[in-house]
Each structure stands twice: as C-alpha cells, then as structure tokens.
Amino acid sequence: MRHIHKENTMNNIAKSPLSLWLDTYGTYSPEPSLQGEENVDIAIIGGGFTGVATAHELKRAEPSLRVAVLEAETVGFGASGRNGSFAMTVVGLGFGVTAMLRGKQFLSDAHKYMMKAVDHLDDLIQRENLDCDRIRPGFLRTATTAGYIKRIQHDVELMNSLGFDDISWLSAEEVCQRVHSDRYLGAMWEPRMVLINP
After folding, report:
1. Which of 79, 28, 33 is closest to 52 using CA atoms?
2. Residue 172 to residues 149, 169, 182, 188: CA-CA distances in angstroms?
3. Which residues contact 143 (CB under 8 A, 6 or more apart)?
4. CA separation (Å) from 99 to 78, 94, 106, 191?
C-alpha cells in the first residue's frame, strides 16, 4: 500500500503549474503581491470560488466597501481552478440515499437550494458578461446495469413525487440519440447543469 504524506502532497501542489483552466485561458497576468500594509473594510483570505464570489457580492451590495482578496498563489490556483468545471444540483450520494438518510423534506430543500445556486451562477455569468465558455447542456446519470436502472428510475420517481417534474427518465434509445453510444440502458435527465471554464 502506498502512503501519501500530507507534506509531500502539499509540496507537489505548490510546485505544480497553473491549472488546465488557467493554462488554456489565454493571457493571464496575476496581480502583484501585497507589499506593506493595506487598510480595508473586509479582507478575504483565499482566491478561490468562495473568496472571489464573496468579494464580488460584497462590492455589489455595498460599492463603497474596501474589500481585498488575499491569495498565497494565484487566484484560482487550488481546488477552484482544478475541478471538472461543472455546477449541478446533485446532492449527497444520490436522491434516494439522501432521502433515506436525511428525509424527503431535507432532500427537497437541498435540491431547491442547489437549483438556486446553479441558476445564481448562470445569472452571474450572463449579467457580468463573463468570458468562461459557458454552456448549459444538462446532466445525464446513466445506467449500465439492470440494477442501476432500478435505482435511477426510483430516484426519478422520488424527485417527481416531490414536484421536480423537469427530472425525467430517458430510455436507452433516447440516451443513444443524445450521446451517440448504445452502451447505456437508460438515464436520468436533469436540465440544470452549467459547464464553465472556471
């Protein structure tokens, strides 16, 4: 068994080049490092999605605020710049498992929250005219076994019973039309998914 030591992992991340997203974006010029002291109303530590989004929303709510984002590397260097580039509504270990562990009301509330989060991101991209290769293709959760068909169909029925009628079951033929592969036996279709270059 290979043991990964935290120190080695952190050193490798620190030495790694820009993320794929920054590397393929085009010209990127990081801001200069903070020299000396800066007097601000709010200092945010970390230049990932959460830090940058918080700074943006604070300035939008109160333009007179002096807000600084402090990042040890470059903005988007860590997990925010090294991800699959999608925003989606999936919560927990799947809809059925989440309902079983936390209850249907929790699942419904969590899904509504995630719907708002995806829509908020999409609205922000459009409102601010962000250049991030945004597309909204939707999400397929595919089945490759009979057992998985049953599980996914149960999830679709569960979500429909909670009022989420835009989540649907697609037959093998319908999936093949979308992905041009006959490997899949069916799929759950969920339209709220945004792909971006973060």
Report:
1. 79
2. 10, 10, 7, 11
3. 149, 151, 152, 184, 185, 186, 187
4. 32, 9, 7, 21
pTM over 0.85: no
For residue 161, what are the contacts with CB-CB under 8 A and spacing of at least 6? none
Rounded to 5°, the CA angle 132-25-78 comes to 85
Q: Do 153 and 185 meet the contact criterion of CB atoms below 8 Å apart? A: no
The pLDDT assigned to 15 comes to: 54
pLDDT at 8 over 80: no
Q: Which tokens is 10 given?
A: 């952190």
Give, to the nearest 10 degrees, the angle between helix 95-102 and helix 104-127: 130
Q: Minimal CA–CA distance to 175: which of 140, 147, 146, 126?
A: 140
Domain boundary assignment for the chain: 6-81, 86-195
Residue 28 has pLDDT above 60, yes or no: yes
Give, to the nearest 10 degrees, the angle between helix 146-161 and helix 104-127.
80
C-alpha pair distances (Å), 93 with each of 68, 99, 151: 36, 10, 12
Q: Give, for 175, the enclosing helix (H) or strand (E).
A: helix 172-179
